[in-house]
Amino acid sequence: MWVAITPYELTKTTIAQYVEIAPVIDCLIVRTDQATQATEIQRLLDAGFPKAKITAHSNIKLFENFDLKRIHFKEMDERAFEFKNKYPDACVSMSTHHKDTIQSAKNHHLDFVLFGHLFETGSKPGLPPRTPSEISDALQVDMPTIALGGINENTLSQVPHGFSGIAAISFFLQHDIQTLRTLKEGEHYV
């Protein structure tokens, strides 16, 4: 599974990029400001991005108003667990940083988790990546777990075996669809 995550603001250029690469990604987490998230989702839809791949970020009202099928929550946001109970057919995911959080997500029947960060990343300056032990522990939980943090064309081959996919921000904005297809075909971690 390849999960693209938007930057906090979408431009015409980033929207055009997401529309172009839509066939190679499985979902797009719209991580814009809560106040503008509805506008950004509408802009994506108007540009032709597939509605089935749009994932609201922590905004239940937008999930309902746009009749979306996917929603993502921050780590240990209890609303995720209640939400999955209320909407069992929805695809509900959560960011995680610890094995215990992954286990909790599994216990509440979430569909997958993002786990990170695996590599140095500009999104978390000065914060060290997860240790090999933390990564190994995370992968012990029988739950689809997506690698996050510092994923790029150089680190992609270093993603440990056992992850169910990758999630990234800049990686998906920096490559055209053909490059991404080629990189995806070479996945080794699953």
UniProtKB/TrEMBL annotation:
Keywords for this protein: Thiamine biosynthesis
Pathway this chain belongs to: Cofactor biosynthesis; thiamine diphosphate biosynthesis
Keyword Disulfide bond: no
Protein name as it appears in the record: Thiamine phosphate synthase/TenI domain-containing protein
Organism: Staphylococcus simulans UMC-CNS-990
Record-annotated Thiamine phosphate synthase/TenI domain positions: 34-170
